[in-house]
Amino acid sequence: MTTATARLLPRARRFLRRRTRVLLLLAGWSLLESAHTFLGGYGLAKALDQGFLAGHTGVGLVWLGVTALAVIVGGLAGRGVFRGLADLVEPLRDGLVRQVVARSLTHAVAQPARAADSAVVSRLTNQTEIARDSFAGLVLVARSFVFTAAGAVLGLLSLAPQLLLIVVPPLAAGLLLFLATLRPMAARQRAFLQADEDLATQFGAVAEGLRDVVACGAQQRTADRAYGVIEDEARAARQLARWAAVRCLALGLAGQLPILLLLVTAPWLLRQGLTPGAVLGALAYLTQSLLPALHTLMNALGSAGTRLLVVLDRLTTGPAPQPSTAPPPATTQEPAPHVPAPPDGPRVELRAVTFAYGPAARPVLHDLDLTVEPGEHLVVVGPSGIGKSTLTALVAGLLAPAHGEIRVAGRPVRAPLGTDPSLLRVLIPQQAYVFSGTVRENLLYLRPDGASTAALEAASDAVGLDALVRRLGGFDAPLDPGTLSQGERQLIALGRAHLSPAPLVLLDEATCHLDPAAEMRAERAFAERPGTLIVVAHRITSARRADRILVLDGNRATCGTHDELLERSPLYRDLAGSWQPDAPEREENLTAKSRFPV
Ligand SMILES: Nc1ncnc2c1ncn2[C@@H]1O[C@H](COP(=O)(O)OP(=O)(O)OP(=O)(O)O)[C@@H](O)[C@H]1O
Questions:
Q1: Lowest CB count within 10 Å: 22, 238, 327, 562, which one?
Q2: ipTM (interface predicted TM)
Q3: CATH number of the domain encompassing residue 70
Q4: 222 and 144 inside one domain
């Protein structure tokens, strides 16, 4: 805080020096406004002593009239004060907004690969408004306290100097206690703002990556992390409230205790020769002027003041380094942490699985039995809308069957994954998801513990992503999803899946935008990768490359090798009808609606 104050003070001086004329105007209006403070006690004392108690009612009324006039003049002066205040406060807000925008743009240009700075939203809206309101409140209150205190002290002195002895000690003690709370309160305020920014950043990241969160089954982990951030903010708010309570104690000491002392010592003061009017005037100074001024000063300094200091510090030092939405990139200098190679892969078992998209809907899958052996490469084919994507979503655990059971590696598919890497699975859908960040961050999204550049190169070569990486400018080049074709997005998603430690990979037409040669290369890469592989095929050649093929046909499902299915499945025969063994690269779309009416 001391460093923040030291850094901000010269700027504040510069800002105020450039506005001397406005400050002088404010001081002039404030002086006029404070005349009613002086007369508020002095006029009352004279009205009582020289007027009503002396039997001169007229004189008393004149003094009261003068006091009332001072209040009206003070009110008019208040209008001038507010006009001057706007000239001081609005330039501050405009300057801060300009600075935040400039810093965020510089930050974005300097680090294009980083995720968008979501916390800047909090800076531009919440924090600049806090700075403006706090600064306005502070100027109003500080000015009011100085002129009110000067008017009251002058009044007390002119009524009876002894009054100062009763008022000043508790006032000073309370003010000191209050000053002692400023520093810890500023620290709490800073912690609260940090928690607020963390919350904005966290939710920004989650909103951007919702699709990945769901696809990876990370809802619980994401929710836990979000609750943690919310809890941090609540804790910071509670600590701030505790210090606000200490500040109330200081206000009692400085503002209420002098009133109590004055009342208790009133008989003694009267015996010392003070007039009843002087005691009443002193009471008026304490209750009507000093106590309200103190109250607002402490409130303003304790909350608005520390808030202003902290917010200005944050706004003028620029965006804090923030976590990317993607996992931290691994560097080639550091050895990559050990990630277990995918084991053979899990067994996938479906027993009497029935699934419908609603209680009254016709089941998409009905009583389906299927076993995919560890390390097996299964291709799923069938007409459009027959349920291929539904099947992969069920195996990934994204959907729950209405009846039956699905097990992966012997465990119910929707049971919590825990930390067992053999239970991990990755599903790449047809619409590949790519986010703003570097190529490396995109590829490592499912490898939170990182991977060496050599591993990235191996995966890119395997799936056929190498040419694209070169064209983009390497693994650390920024990636703008909007400039990539559908096929290029699919290549990135395939590279990401290939690098993931998941021993079960589900590709749901994940190569449909690639040309046949690129598709063959990518599918071979996954077939050679250890693990269980289930592919929803887009072309007949995909089926030919599989260990086994599952043909979904309405409520029937037939499984077998290519040759077996040619014999047993009329649908598969029909499907492969135009495929010629001597023309292996000729492609037939397996899901063409025209050939397979559902
Ligand atoms: N979220 C959903 N709500 C309701 N019905 C759905 C939903 N998703 C899919 N369906 C329906 O379920 C059936 C199976 O859809 P699915 O996407 O699994 O078929 P598919 O074989 O993968 O089709 P394609 O080859 O065209 O991708 C279709 O009739 C589809 O309209």
A1: 238
A2: 0.96
A3: 1.20.1560.10
A4: yes
Query: Same structural domain for residues 299 and 425?
Result: no
Q: What is the pTM of this model?
A: 0.49
- From atom 26 of ligand 1, which residue's Cα is the shortest distance away? 384
Of all protein residues, whose CA lies closest to atom 2 belonging to ligand 1? 357
- Does one domain contain both 20 and 131? yes
Asked whether residue 336 is assigned to any structural domain, the reply reads no
Compute the distance between CA of residue 213 and CA of residue 218 in angstroms, rounded to an integer.
Answer: 5
Residue range of the domain that includes 91: 15-317
CA of 109 to the centre of ligand 1 (A): 43
Co-location of 466 and 385 in the same domain: yes
Closest atom, ligand 1, to C-alpha of 430? 27
What phi-psi label fits residue 53: left (phi over 0), alpha (psi between -120 and 50 degrees) or beta?
A: alpha
Tell me the sheet residues that pair with 532.
Answer: 504
- Gyration radius (Cα) of the chain, Å: 38
The three state secondary structure string of 93-135 is HHHHHHHHHHHHHHHHHHCCCCCCCCHHHHHHHHHHHHHHHHH
Residue 436 lies in a domain: yes
Block means of pLDDT (10 residues each) for the chain, 598 residues, are: 63 81 86 82 90 92 91 84 83 80 70 55 71 84 86 88 89 88 82 82 77 72 84 90 87 89 92 91 90 83 72 63 37 35 77 90 91 93 90 92 92 78 86 89 86 92 94 91 91 94 92 90 91 88 87 85 88 70 44 32
